[in-house]
Inverse folding.
């Protein structure tokens, strides 16, 4: 073991740390070690490839994906959710925007309202969890949630907002959300922090829209953006854009 590995091992033992430590420097793995238990009841130890449920840490991945789509022109911070939802989630305010969802200022109702949870053993999901195997599968869970505040009036932490962001990203790009992450949140698609497909599996970076200044000249039905416009080309099949085009989004 290296001096760094020895030091980290000592800190992990002294603090009763449970988890995995991995240190990578210039693509070289210097430390990879597991500590503690993955399942306390059965005394199953952690391994370096143990998959951890990281819960709302994935909101950070979702935000980065959405912001990169904004950078690419696929979405805009002022894009309304309604422009991509169509008739889905009719109870939701039509003026809710991507920016408000990112900042927990949308005012939409939460399918998992943590303030109303009775206890740690309470079953709080409105639908069986095995049905939540896709982003679109969350629609029944989001359905019918009354608005709790007008858009952009107050901060209110909202799980529904980030599920909705994933859905908007998926519909805007025409790509399943697990496959959107790719090079957007990490330098290599082989790095999967949790090993789960929720927001870590991916493919190469998606360029679904021309980044040239005159986006109106590069419609989704065009076959190729010119190098003089943006410096890179879109697939010959064109953009899989669904919904309002970026050039017409307010």
């Amino acid at each position: 073991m290296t001096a760094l590995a020895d030091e980290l091992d000592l800190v992990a033992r002294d603090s009763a740390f449970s988890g995995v430590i991995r240190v990578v420097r210039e693509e070289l793995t210097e430390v990879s070690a597991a500590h503690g238990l993955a399942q306390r009841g059965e005394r199953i130890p952690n391994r370096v490839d143990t998959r951890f449920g990281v819960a709302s840490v994935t909101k950070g991945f979702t935000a980065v994906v959405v912001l990169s789509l904004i950078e690419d022109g696929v979405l805009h911070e002022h894009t309304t959710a309604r422009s991509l939802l169509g008739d889905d989630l009719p109870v939701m305010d039509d003026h809710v925007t991507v920016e408000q969802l990112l900042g927990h200022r949308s005012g939409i109702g939460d399918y998992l309202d943590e303030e109303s949870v009775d206890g740690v053993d309470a079953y709080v999901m409105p639908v069986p969890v095995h049905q939540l195997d896709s982003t679109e599968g969350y629609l029944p869970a989001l359905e019918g949630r009354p608005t709790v505040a007008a858009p952009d009036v107050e901060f209110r932490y909202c799980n529904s907002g980030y599920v909705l962001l994933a859905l908007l990203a998926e519909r805007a790009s025409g790509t399943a959300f697990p496959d959107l992450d790719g090079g957007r949140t990490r330098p290599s698609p082989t790095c999967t922090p949790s090993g789960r497909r929720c927001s870590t599996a991916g493919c190469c970076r998606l360029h679904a829209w021309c980044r040239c200044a005159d986006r109106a000249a590069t419609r989704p039905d065009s076959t190729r953006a010119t190098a003089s416009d943006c410096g890179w080309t879109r697939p010959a099949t064109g953009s899989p854009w669904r919904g309002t085009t970026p050039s017409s989004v307010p």
Q: What stands out?
A: Strands lie at 19-25, 28-35, 37-39, 44-45. Residues 187-250 have pLDDT under 50 and may be disordered.
